[in-house]
Amino acid sequence: MLLKICGAGSAGDVELLGAAGADLVGLWHGVPGGRADLSPSKLSALASAARRAARPRPVLVTFRRDADGLREALAAARIHWIQLHGYQPPGTVRALKDGGDGDGGDLTVVKVVHLDGESCPERSLIPAYERAGTDVFLVDAVAADGRIGSTGQPVDPGAVLGLVDRMSRPFLLAGGVRADNREEYRAVLEHPLFLGIDVDTAARDADGRLRADRVRAVSRGWRPVPGPEAGR
Ligand SMILES: O=C(O)c1ccccc1N[C@@H]1O[C@H](COP(=O)(O)O)[C@@H](O)[C@H]1O
């Protein structure tokens, strides 16, 4: 099971996340007004920090939809994963995967689909996102005021299952994932396409700083140590 933590703002954050067990780190770029939106040079610096440590692998997280600009940002920072967290159309996925120079096969595209209660605006587009080359879906919540990203708001497990049953690609679960709420999602975890979790709010303290103890708690909560029977 993969553990992704979103929103590193410094090389120290990246190192802390690697040491605490995160597999992937979200680096914000093209998130207007975001508290940790990174300039191109900062994005490159944090991606380098992640490469030096071998883990976590950097993921560019963005609301942007201009594939040319995004490809430039990815190439400059040497990042091979991108999370399209806004309402980008399937055409953005296709343009990224096709790539200007045919290197899209090297890029893992994560497309976020949003759950507003039971309803998902991208639901009917899932086959089109797959045809466009989406590698991984990410199911996240929409806040009551329409905000997306870092809502801290849990998604309904039944609504998640209803959505992922339409998919043939793996998916990550997000939206208010905490150290103590794995049991509520048991059926989601058991889905054959379940790939892992993506966390922001529960990894931070009251001042919004990423905290190693919180990341470790989420990791322990969602990746329990197998009992003596496991593997027999
Ligand atoms: O974390 C953010 O501020 C953010 C900004 C822009 C796009 C995505 C963002 N985070 C994503 O939010 C969800 C989880 O949030 P939470 O655990 O419910 O707070 C996750 O997919 C992050 O990648």
UniProtKB/TrEMBL annotation:
Keywords: Amino-acid biosynthesis, Aromatic amino acid biosynthesis, Isomerase, Plasmid, Tryptophan biosynthesis. It is an enzyme of class 5 (isomerase). Residues 48-200 form the N-(5'phosphoribosyl) anthranilate isomerase (PRAI) domain. It catalyses: N-(5-phospho-beta-D-ribosyl)anthranilate = 1-(2-carboxyphenylamino)-1-deoxy-D-ribulose 5-phosphate. GO terms for biological process: L-tryptophan biosynthetic process. InterPro entries: Aldolase_TIM (IPR013785), PRAI_dom (IPR001240), RibuloseP-bd_barrel (IPR011060), TrpF_fam (IPR044643). Its EC number is 5.3.1.24. Gene3D superfamilies: Aldolase class I. Pathway: Amino-acid biosynthesis; L-tryptophan biosynthesis; L-tryptophan from chorismate: step 3/5. One of its GO terms (molecular function) is phosphoribosylanthranilate isomerase activity. Belongs to the TrpF family. This is N-(5'-phosphoribosyl)anthranilate isomerase. It comes from Streptomyces clavuligerus.
